[in-house]
Amino acid sequence: MSKPEASKLTKSTASINPALPVALSDATMKCLEEGKQLRSSPFLKKIQHRLLELEIELQASRGEEPEGAVGAMSHTSHNLAHEVRILKEHCNCLSPIGRLPLEVLTKIFALLTSNAIDGWMMTRKHPIIPLTHVCRDWRASALQCPPLWSDLTYLTPRVMELAFNRSGNDPLEITFIAGKHRFTDVHRKALSQTGRLLSVGIEAKSKHALREYVSCFSRSAPILEDLSLKSGTELGRWTLPDGLLKGGTPSLKDLSLIRTGIPWSKIPVSSQLTHLTLNEWDMMTLGAETEAVLAFLKQTPLLQYLNLSSSLPYDALCYEPSDSSLIVTLPALQEMRLHELSSTLMEFLPFLRIPATTKVKLAFADDSEAFGVIDVEAIGMVLGTLKWIQGGSGAAGSRMVTKFHFSGWFLDEDDDDFEDEEVLYASFWFGEDPDPGLELTIARDESVNVDKLLAAFRWRLDFSSLHSFTLSDTGAPSSSKFAVSAFAWRIVFGQLPLLRTVELNRSWPTEFILATHPTLLEKLGVGSGFPALTTIVWEEIDWCEVVEESDEGELAGCALQAGFLVDFLADRPEPQVELHIRGCLGFSRKDFAQVQAIVPELKIQWDGFCD
Known about the structure:
This protein is an alpha/beta fold.
């Protein structure tokens, strides 16, 4: 056994409570003395053997008849129990966790704290407190390590005050959510120590309440890296408290302001900023000016993520993008999300220069008298502007829209903040993908012209590298409207050299089936279509409604519809095409058998759903 371990054992023995002056037996003393000369494993075996002997003696003493010797028996039991305790303390000292250096043990505690955050939120107890109850050494280690107490998130007022007092002068992390927590004097005291603030997240029910919470922000915050402020849905400009982070935030890396109404000229800025999110919802609240926005962005050369909603300037049209002094270059930008009026986007984007590899998501928030009408011309113009601002290297020419979502309602699976707003909403991703695929999601509306939308994409973008196309219809299928016409299928997708997968999700399939049939190809004067096609997916299509009028005016059933496609698949050269049928209403086992009978060698995967 090493000298440090032996020294630790000696100290442990010497630390016996002096109020219990109990002499150890010769056997126990011999065990401990011999152990100082042994390595840990043999010593542990000696201790365990001695513990077994003491347990036998203890049981024997308890089984003796008192006969006036109650005091002697009690004394013997007490002595034996004391020896057991001393030996177990030595066992603990020799355990692997007990021999860890203090700095390693506290590091483990810190990792446990971060991993226990979910349970922490539920119990409202500080996760370090249970660790302090394990043993004396663990308690001493935890209490002597201020960083373990510096996160004041999700605590009750009493525990928060305890943690704040134990945090010493270490950097603080604070999260406050109105309704879940009660704002206390400890919050005010902690937030007023701006020199210690490392991360701050505050969510208030109103701008007035938010003003109160941050009124203690004063002076500079030299080490603040993460700042998130969010208020309720009330409208109106927010009056700033005097001296909000006066002196700056030179270390700020992540800034999120949701419905705060803070003007661009007053927003804390840092040359270290990498993530910026501004969401005002009400476009008239911020009243941003172009010069203020550009001046802010020019100070963020390291910006990697930019998310702006209703936060862009309203007067960009008054400035000339040809003025080089106004141009903002963001060389590190990896992702940009903009949710604005299409006119605002077209006016502001020319002032930006971003890498050709930046992933872009644009969402239009245009009010429309003809509810649900997509402004295809505006989309085309914005796509053209994006290609222009992403550098003239030519790389942007190979880029494409990888996801498009249109709805008559605000409905965005990537952002829970937008729900149930009756305005036009159209958004799309524009970015690189090693396996590029276009996803088009349309809320069924008689005014939607998907053919024009695809034409706008095809005119502005190069689809030649497209590997997959998914068309989803969030509404019920209609027998009078097709999401994509047979002509558009052939012209836009039919000759793509790399298109391997076509997936139709609740989207009318008849026109696609027509587009794949040789008779239509002959009419269009084109050769074999879809040369790289290997997989066709039909998902959640109501085959009870999928019909086609023949020359005699009769209606063809779902099996014949599928058989019509199978004719095309059977005549195709390599590669072999697989047909996947998932969750399709009305497609029965009989239909599946008929399709298999037409072309037995065709690979068909059906999930058996036939409700």
